[in-house]
Amino acid sequence: MANSASPPEFNSLRRLPATPEAGGIRTTRLQEAAYNAQLAAGLPISNLARAVLIKENGIINFHHCASYIHAVQQMEWFAAAFRTYTGPVTVVGGKGGSHASAVDRRIKIGTDSRYNVSQCEQACLHELAHIVTPDYGPGQELREPPRGRGSRKGHHHAWRVNFVLIVRKTLGKQAALLLRYEFDQWGLPTSK
Ligand SMILES: [Zn+2]
User: Fold this and answer.
1) Would you say domain 45-173 falls under CATH 3.30.1490?
2) CB atoms closer than 10 angstroms to residue 23
């Protein structure tokens, strides 16, 4: 489970993009941990991403992110796992970090996430996991405190489980195992 197999792109990423989803609100320790774990997992790049997330003039156009996300949504396993979420989400671009609104069924893949294919694919999958994991669980109860030290800012257990599933189906079993391992290391277990 060592990370010696991390793709070279990750070596240049010394720190994570600043609070991509907090929208100006300070990140919590556990929210930060979710990004760190994802980075540490050194996830591979899928063939779909290599084919679809094409760089033009040094950056991937957000329309390609939309194509990628919609393609994932149309996969058989996705429909089986997330049947009420197969309608294509709205994908927008813009400067800065990435963000998802499950309520509006809208994903922003910001410029920070579009300079390399690996980061871009991970942002698409990360945000898609937010779409299929609203912060309110069954019975409309909040899955975690909305702020404060206990908050993972949406990176709660239900999100992690769905993200790991999405990673397993798109990036493979080994990638999912690495991600689970790193979530665990960062204090964000994915077991029941
Ligand atoms: Zn997130």
Assistant:
1) no
2) 10
Q: What is the mean pLDDT of the chain?
A: 85
Q: Cβ of 168: how many Cβ atoms within 10 Å?
A: 17
**How many A from CA of 142 to the centre of ligand 1?**
16
For position 150, what pLDDT does the model report? 66
Please give the residue that has the higher pLDDT: either 121 or 16.
121
Give the Å distances, CA to CA, from 155 to 67, 117, 161: 25, 23, 10
| Of 105-114, 116-125, 140-149, the least confident | 140-149
CA–CA separation, 42 and 179 (whole Å): 8
Q: Which of 114, 119, 115 is nearest to 7 (CA)?
A: 119
Distance from residue 188's CA to the centre of ligand 1 (Å): 13
- How far is the first Cα of the chain from the last one, in angstroms, to the nearest whole number? 21
| Nearest C-alpha neighbor of 65 from the set 114, 23, 9 | 114
8 CB-near residues (< 8 Å, 6+ apart): none
Does pTM top 0.90 for this prediction? no
Whole-number percent of the chain with pLDDT over 70: 81
Q: Which amino acid is at 162?
A: N
- Tell me how far the alpha carbon of residue 18 lies from the centroid of ligand 1, in angstroms: 12
